[in-house]
Write the structure tokens for this entry.
Amino acid sequence: DGTEGEEKSLLAPWTPKEREQVRALVARLPDQYLTVVPLAERRIHNQLMHQLMESDVAAVVGKWNMAGKQTRFHVVHRNRVGSLGVITSLLSNRGFNILNASVFSTNDGWAVNAFWLEPPEDAVHPSMGLIPIDDLIFDIDRTFSSMSLHSTPSNTPPPPGWELAGSAPSA
């Protein structure tokens, strides 16, 4: 079973390469990441980041972790304006109750997020666990593909008191 193999890989001893990769990822994230995200989840984020960076087609990767009646959803993607809203809307539309979230951006434009979710009853199969993540990732990816990669939308007005370059001062 793929899930068993994934769980075993998370429990396996860390390789020196993996330790270095996680250190490099942590160095690209805000200091709060170390205080909020447990070591095992840093390993998951590292694996997802490398899976995403090695892919020619994926714009987002994710992983479920069941913990009793709650689920941890890890998602890594290229950061863009509105991406958090897309993810939370898609989760909510599927009936997931978002209990908590840790949301971080690297200094080079990647988002590393983890959500504690309470899944709807119909999302959990008695013998197989949580429904496959593929449909959710596909919908996130599809929505992201129609979004801009710019850090701010061009139609966002500047904060009050800011003047646009080349514009006349306001009266």
Notes: Residues 34 and 78 are 21 Å apart (CA to CA). The beta strands are 60-67, 70-78, 97-105, 110-118, 124-125, 129-130. The radius of gyration is 19 Å.
